[in-house]
Design goal:
CATH superfamily: Cytochrome c-like domain
Number of helices: 5
Protein name: Sulfide dehydrogenase
GO molecular function: electron transfer activity; heme binding; metal ion binding
CATH architecture: Orthogonal Bundle
Number of strands: 2
CATH class: Mainly Alpha
Bound molecules: heme C
Helix content: 55-70%
Strand order of the largest sheet: 1-2
Keywords: Heme, Iron, Metal-binding, Signal
Organism: Caldimonas thermodepolymerans
Strand content: under 5%
Protein backbone atom coordinates (compact mmCIF):
# COMPACT_ATOMS: atom_id res chain seq x y z
CA UNK A 1 0.00 0.00 0.00
CA UNK A 2 2.77 2.38 0.86
CA UNK A 3 4.29 1.79 -2.55
CA UNK A 4 1.03 2.67 -4.30
CA UNK A 5 0.75 5.89 -2.35
CA UNK A 6 4.32 6.74 -3.17
CA UNK A 7 3.62 6.21 -6.88
CA UNK A 8 0.52 8.39 -6.69
CA UNK A 9 2.66 11.21 -5.37
CA UNK A 10 5.39 10.62 -7.89
CA UNK A 11 3.26 10.56 -11.05
CA UNK A 12 2.29 14.25 -11.18
CA UNK A 13 5.93 15.19 -10.66
CA UNK A 14 6.96 12.90 -13.51
CA UNK A 15 4.32 14.44 -15.75
CA UNK A 16 5.72 17.91 -15.07
CA UNK A 17 9.27 16.79 -15.83
CA UNK A 18 8.20 15.11 -19.09
CA UNK A 19 6.21 18.16 -20.18
CA UNK A 20 9.19 20.41 -19.45
CA UNK A 21 11.62 18.29 -21.46
CA UNK A 22 9.20 18.03 -24.40
CA UNK A 23 9.04 21.82 -24.35
CA UNK A 24 12.83 22.09 -24.34
CA UNK A 25 13.05 19.72 -27.32
CA UNK A 26 10.62 21.88 -29.26
CA UNK A 27 12.90 24.82 -28.65
CA UNK A 28 15.87 22.74 -29.84
CA UNK A 29 13.99 21.76 -33.04
CA UNK A 30 12.94 25.36 -33.69
CA UNK A 31 16.52 26.55 -33.18
CA UNK A 32 17.79 23.94 -35.62
CA UNK A 33 15.29 25.00 -38.30
CA UNK A 34 16.29 28.64 -37.84
CA UNK A 35 19.98 27.71 -38.00
CA UNK A 36 19.55 25.83 -41.28
CA UNK A 37 17.19 28.12 -43.14
CA UNK A 38 14.88 30.24 -40.99
CA UNK A 39 17.34 33.03 -40.23
CA UNK A 40 18.38 35.32 -43.12
CA UNK A 41 21.19 34.88 -43.92
CA UNK A 42 21.18 31.33 -42.55
CA UNK A 43 23.80 30.54 -39.92
CA UNK A 44 24.70 27.35 -41.82
CA UNK A 45 26.06 29.44 -44.72
CA UNK A 46 28.89 30.71 -42.50
CA UNK A 47 29.22 28.20 -39.66
CA UNK A 48 30.11 24.53 -39.39
CA UNK A 49 28.05 22.65 -36.80
CA UNK A 50 28.00 18.85 -36.80
CA UNK A 51 24.45 18.47 -35.47
CA UNK A 52 23.13 20.65 -38.30
CA UNK A 53 25.37 19.01 -40.90
CA UNK A 54 26.59 22.45 -41.97
CA UNK A 55 30.07 23.20 -43.25
CA UNK A 56 30.15 26.99 -43.66
CA UNK A 57 33.69 28.25 -43.16
CA UNK A 58 33.35 32.04 -42.97
CA UNK A 59 32.71 32.09 -39.22
CA UNK A 60 34.24 29.94 -36.48
CA UNK A 61 33.41 26.24 -36.23
CA UNK A 62 30.78 26.17 -33.49
CA UNK A 63 31.70 22.68 -32.25
CA UNK A 64 35.13 24.10 -31.54
CA UNK A 65 34.25 27.33 -29.73
CA UNK A 66 31.27 25.71 -27.93
CA UNK A 67 29.59 29.01 -27.04
CA UNK A 68 27.20 29.17 -24.10
CA UNK A 69 23.66 30.42 -24.72
CA UNK A 70 24.42 33.97 -23.57
CA UNK A 71 27.35 34.26 -25.98
CA UNK A 72 25.21 33.11 -28.93
CA UNK A 73 22.41 35.53 -28.02
CA UNK A 74 24.90 38.41 -27.71
CA UNK A 75 26.36 37.71 -31.17
CA UNK A 76 22.85 37.54 -32.66
CA UNK A 77 21.66 40.77 -31.07
CA UNK A 78 24.76 42.88 -31.78
CA UNK A 79 26.49 41.16 -34.70
CA UNK A 80 30.24 40.59 -34.65
CA UNK A 81 32.78 41.47 -37.35
CA UNK A 82 31.27 40.36 -40.68
CA UNK A 83 28.46 38.51 -38.90
CA UNK A 84 25.31 40.64 -39.20
CA UNK A 85 23.05 41.55 -36.28
CA UNK A 86 19.74 39.69 -36.29
CA UNK A 87 18.05 42.11 -33.88
CA UNK A 88 15.80 43.47 -36.62
CA UNK A 89 14.95 40.17 -38.32
CA UNK A 90 14.52 37.65 -35.48
CA UNK A 91 12.13 37.84 -32.53
CA UNK A 92 13.39 37.44 -28.96
CA UNK A 93 11.83 33.96 -28.89
CA UNK A 94 13.71 33.01 -32.06
CA UNK A 95 17.00 34.34 -30.67
CA UNK A 96 16.33 32.38 -27.49
CA UNK A 97 15.68 29.18 -29.48
CA UNK A 98 18.85 29.65 -31.55
CA UNK A 99 20.93 30.28 -28.42
CA UNK A 100 19.48 27.12 -26.84
CA UNK A 101 20.09 25.05 -29.97
CA UNK A 102 23.64 26.21 -30.74
CA UNK A 103 24.86 25.92 -27.14
CA UNK A 104 23.30 22.49 -26.63
CA UNK A 105 24.28 21.07 -30.04
CA UNK A 106 27.88 22.28 -29.73
CA UNK A 107 28.27 21.15 -26.13
CA UNK A 108 28.49 24.67 -24.66
CA UNK A 109 26.85 25.60 -21.37
CA UNK A 110 23.05 26.07 -21.63
C1 LIG B 1 27.91 36.09 -43.08
C2 LIG B 1 28.44 35.00 -42.28
C3 LIG B 1 27.80 34.70 -40.96
C4 LIG B 1 26.47 34.38 -40.70
C5 LIG B 1 25.33 34.32 -41.68
C6 LIG B 1 26.42 34.06 -39.29
N1 LIG B 1 27.64 34.19 -38.70
FE1 LIG B 1 28.10 33.82 -36.77
N2 LIG B 1 29.97 34.54 -37.07
C7 LIG B 1 30.51 34.89 -38.30
C8 LIG B 1 31.86 35.35 -38.10
C9 LIG B 1 32.83 35.83 -39.19
C10 LIG B 1 32.13 35.29 -36.71
C11 LIG B 1 33.40 35.71 -35.98
C12 LIG B 1 33.36 37.21 -35.77
C13 LIG B 1 34.58 37.75 -35.09
O1 LIG B 1 35.04 37.14 -34.11
O2 LIG B 1 35.05 38.77 -35.54
C14 LIG B 1 30.91 34.75 -36.11
C15 LIG B 1 30.77 34.49 -34.76
C16 LIG B 1 29.72 33.77 -34.21
C17 LIG B 1 29.67 33.29 -32.85
C18 LIG B 1 30.74 33.48 -31.78
C19 LIG B 1 30.50 34.75 -31.04
C20 LIG B 1 31.61 35.09 -30.08
O3 LIG B 1 31.30 35.67 -29.04
O4 LIG B 1 32.78 34.78 -30.37
C21 LIG B 1 28.49 32.63 -32.70
C22 LIG B 1 27.99 31.93 -31.45
C23 LIG B 1 27.79 32.71 -33.96
N3 LIG B 1 28.57 33.41 -34.86
C24 LIG B 1 26.54 32.16 -34.21
C25 LIG B 1 25.79 32.41 -35.36
C26 LIG B 1 24.41 32.04 -35.53
C27 LIG B 1 23.57 31.28 -34.53
C28 LIG B 1 24.04 32.51 -36.76
C29 LIG B 1 22.68 32.47 -37.42
C30 LIG B 1 21.60 33.19 -36.80
C31 LIG B 1 25.21 33.12 -37.37
N4 LIG B 1 26.25 33.05 -36.48
C32 LIG B 1 25.25 33.67 -38.65
C33 LIG B 1 29.87 34.83 -39.52
C34 LIG B 1 28.51 34.58 -39.69
Amino acid sequence: MAAVQYLRQLLPALAVILAASAHADEKFALGKRLFLEGATPACAVCHALKDAGSEGAIGPELDEIRPDAARVARALRSGLGVMPSYAATLTEAQIDALAHYVSKASGGAP
